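Recall that a protein's primary structure is simply its ordered list of amino acids. Everything else, from secondary elements to tertiary packing, is in principle encoded there. The following example makes that idea concrete.
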Amino acid sequence: MSDSGAMDKLKGKAKEVAGKVTGDRRQESEGRTDQAKGKAKDAVDGLQDRARGVRDSLSRDRNEP
């Protein structure tokens, strides 16, 4: 999990809860948006890690006799 993704999710949850408590639907919606943004960042990081792994395994296979 990326640090920025985790921070977005945490910040978003706090905004969502604060919005629910105060009845501020806009803040609640912003919180859900921030959480979705954090999840997207985590998904991109996961894909990048997988791509690096595939690249590394392919380069190892080519270098082996």
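Helices lie at 3-22, 25-63. The chain has a mean pLDDT of 89.
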